[in-house]
């Protein structure tokens, strides 16, 4: 093994040398060409803001002219990475929130001066308020460094650890050293046994994931500020290296959603997302980040911010909710046990076919560990079920691994659906779904008592279920 190490490094050095002398010149030429093309493209780009529309003309060989009605504009976001911040420029993304693909719902202006970007944002979103509320501004929330402790509790942590191992193997594959790296790791951990080696790999992966999640959280949310502006917009500003500014018109807001992943909820924290129209454009990779009004923060702070955003004295997300029937717990327990039994059955079948001791151990370990976890999650999911009315808001809560509490404006509900499966009818349960033009488009009250569910729906939005009550 020791004799093979110099040979391996010699081969790797030769491969690296030829890679550098071939890749670097090509990369430099591609970079120079990109700079020239982008410079010409930016010089050929023109835009203007008129009283009723925004006009944009761009293109070098093929000229494109677009006209966007100002009444259709939903959000105006500003983004500046480290190079852009150095030169004092931003990217302005103007989104209409429509469902057209291929970027048809948004207009992006690149390399705009920061002052000009701020002016465009204020001008395009300040169309006056039509709800009679005072157009006052103020700070709603500010970043607290103590919130960083919630970052490692998300699902991102194990994902980053696994990605780190995958990245190492991928880089080793580029230089033809993947099998050597794997053999080196096996030799290094061989003295610890199977259980010890797996434990070391898992611990190192967790440490890498924790460090990565901390760095990612700081990069995304450092210097976070949530403001209400006098023009009738809610503005989120955040970012350490890449600074982002996301603006949302209050008149587009239909409610808020309190999101509590299991790890974050265990630490008593929650995230606040906006339920708003104009945030559902296709092909938007930052949709999840754009709707977040508050990152993972203490639950009390999340409820306070939710109430402040909705201009309510008390947050509807903290309202007392109606519990669901005990039959709903049975449904969750049966589903959880079925989900836990499926992989155990597959492993048992493989063991029966191949008679491998490893598969036998995996089978009983999966059964012993999977069933209690499944039962605990099922009972927790039942306890989290609830629905109610809080002033002008319909409130629904569900979920265990990801508990969600949504407060939806009753006037924003455009339809109600009552659904009963065969098994729900036998147990007197019903799922009520409120359809809206905002957020995910539909929010459900799962497995409520049938009579209570219909009465709740009729009280939340009177008249929609009138024909059903008449037939009953």
TrEMBL record:
<protein>
    <recommendedName>
        <fullName>YdbS-like PH domain-containing protein</fullName>
    </recommendedName>
</protein>
<feature type="transmembrane region" description="Helical">
    <location>
        <begin position="360"/>
        <end position="379"/>
    </location>
</feature>
<keyword id="KW-0472">Membrane</keyword>
<feature type="domain" description="YdbS-like PH">
    <location>
        <begin position="43"/>
        <end position="123"/>
    </location>
</feature>
<keyword id="KW-1133">Transmembrane helix</keyword>
<dbReference type="InterPro" id="IPR014529">
    <property type="entry name" value="UCP026631"/>
</dbReference>
<keyword id="KW-0812">Transmembrane</keyword>
<feature type="transmembrane region" description="Helical">
    <location>
        <begin position="336"/>
        <end position="354"/>
    </location>
</feature>
<feature type="transmembrane region" description="Helical">
    <location>
        <begin position="147"/>
        <end position="168"/>
    </location>
</feature>
<feature type="transmembrane region" description="Helical">
    <location>
        <begin position="188"/>
        <end position="218"/>
    </location>
</feature>
<feature type="transmembrane region" description="Helical">
    <location>
        <begin position="16"/>
        <end position="37"/>
    </location>
</feature>
<feature type="domain" description="YdbS-like PH">
    <location>
        <begin position="382"/>
        <end position="455"/>
    </location>
</feature>
<dbReference type="Pfam" id="PF03703">
    <property type="entry name" value="bPH_2"/>
</dbReference>
<dbReference type="InterPro" id="IPR005182">
    <property type="entry name" value="YdbS-like_PH"/>
</dbReference>
């Amino acid at each position: 093994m020791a004799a093979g190490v110099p040979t391996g490094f010699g081969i790797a050095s030769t491969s690296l040398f030829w890679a550098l002398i071939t890749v670097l010149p090509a990369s430099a030429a591609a970079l120079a060409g990109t700079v020239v093309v982008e410079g010409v493209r930016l010089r050929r780009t023109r835009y203007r803001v008129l009283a009723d529309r925004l006009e944009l003309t761009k293109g070098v060989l093929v000229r494109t002219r677009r006209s966007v009605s100002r009444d259709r504009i939903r959000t105006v976001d500003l983004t500046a990475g480290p190079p852009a911040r150095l030169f004092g420029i931003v990217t302005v993304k103007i989104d209409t929130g429509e469902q057209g693909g291929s970027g048809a719902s948004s207009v992006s202006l690149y390399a705009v001066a920061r002052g000009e970007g701020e002016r465009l944002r204020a001008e395009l979103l300040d169309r006056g308020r039509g709800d009679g509320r005072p157009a006052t501004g103020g700070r709603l929330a500010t970043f607290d460094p103590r919130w960083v402790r919630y970052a490692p509790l998300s699902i991102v942590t194990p994902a980053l650890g696994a990605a780190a191992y995958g990245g190492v193997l991928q880089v080793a594959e580029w230089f033809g050293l993947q099998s050597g790296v794997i053999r080196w790791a096996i030799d290094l951990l061989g003295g610890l046994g199977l259980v010890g080696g797996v434990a070391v790999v898992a611990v190192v992966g967790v440490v890498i994931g924790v460090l990565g999640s901390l760095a990612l959280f700081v990069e995304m949310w450092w210097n976070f500020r949530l403001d209400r502006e006098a023009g009738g917009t809610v503005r989120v500003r955040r970012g350490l290296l890449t600074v982002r500014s996301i603006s949302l018109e209050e008149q587009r807001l239909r409610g808020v959603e309190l999101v509590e992943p299991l790890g974050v909820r265990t630490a008593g924290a929650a995230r606040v997302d906006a339920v708003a129209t104009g945030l559902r454009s296709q092909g938007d990779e930052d949709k999840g980040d754009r709707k977040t009004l508050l990152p993972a923060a203490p639950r009390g702070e999340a409820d306070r911010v939710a109430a402040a955003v909705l201009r309510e004295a008390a947050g509807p997300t903290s309202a007392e909710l109606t519990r669901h029937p005990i039959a709903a717990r049975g449904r969750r327990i049966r589903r959880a046990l079925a989900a836990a039994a499926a992989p155990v059955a597959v492993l048992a079948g493989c063991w029966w076919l191949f008679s491998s001791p490893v598969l036998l151990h995996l089978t009983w370990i999966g059964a012993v560990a999977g069933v209690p976890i499944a039962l605990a999650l099922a009972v927790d999911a039942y306890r989290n079920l609830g629905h109610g009315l809080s002033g002008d808001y319909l409130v629904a809560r569900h979920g265990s691994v990801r508990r969600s509490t949504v407060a939806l404006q009753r006037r924003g509900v455009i339809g109600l659906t009552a659904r009963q499966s065969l098994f729900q009818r036998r147990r007197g349960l019903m799922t009520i779904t409120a359809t809206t033009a905002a957020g995910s488009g539909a929010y459900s009250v799962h497995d409520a008592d049938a009579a209570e569910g219909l009465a709740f729906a009729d009280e939340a939005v009177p008249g929609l279920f009138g024909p059903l009550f008449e037939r009953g």
